[in-house]
Structures are given as structure tokens and as C-alpha cells.
User: What shape does this take?
Amino acid sequence: MNYKLIVLIIIYTITTSCKTGVEVTFTNESKEDFKTLTIGIFDEQFDFENLKSGQTTKTIKVERIYPYCYARAVTKNDTVRCVPIDFIGEKLKKRGKLNMKIYIDSTSNKKRRLYFITDKKKQKNY
Assistant: This one.
């Protein structure tokens, strides 16, 4: 009897501790406030409003994510986008937590664009 109870407890612990999905937040690392921030992750779209400089969004949960995705931010002056390209060797994240920092690159004479910085490195997207 005790053996069956121990086995049931172990099975319950294993199944409840195996979390799937990724908890993702986005931090506005630019010097500008975002009136709206739209994020596209695979077939899902997430919209955030009034994301001030330095602020982080509420957590969203997705099934999977690469360390980059589609993003569009509307600022006081214009609309900037990140349209990702496929990076070779990037790993698909299926569980855990990820904070994606977003900033606007306006240092060049080219059109302003959004970029991501994950915890590991800066992601240049086109």
C-alpha cells in the first residue's frame, strides 16, 4: 500500500513540475515611449499600449518562441518595425522565461528600425 502511494506521489510531482510553454516579457529599452507595441509570434498577435521608456510588458505565455519576432511600435513621431529574418543556429525555446529588450536604432542615415536584445546578445533584424 505504501509503495503505491509513493509511486502516485512521484508521478504527480513529475507531471505537475514539467511546465511547458515560455513566459515572455518585452522591455522598452529605447529613449522613446511606445503608444502601441504589436508583437507577432508565429500565428499569435499581442498588443500592448502606452509602454513607456524602461517599462516592461505584462507576461504572455506562448508555446514556443525564437529570440526574435515581428514587432511594430508606434511612437510620437513615427511607426517603426522589426521584420525578422531567419537566423541560422538560433534555438527554438519551448519552456522557461525570456525577456526581450526592444530598442530603436536611429544612429544611421537609414530608416529607423526596431531591434531586439535578448539576455544573450543583440539581434539585428531587417
Notes: The chain has one domain: 20-123.
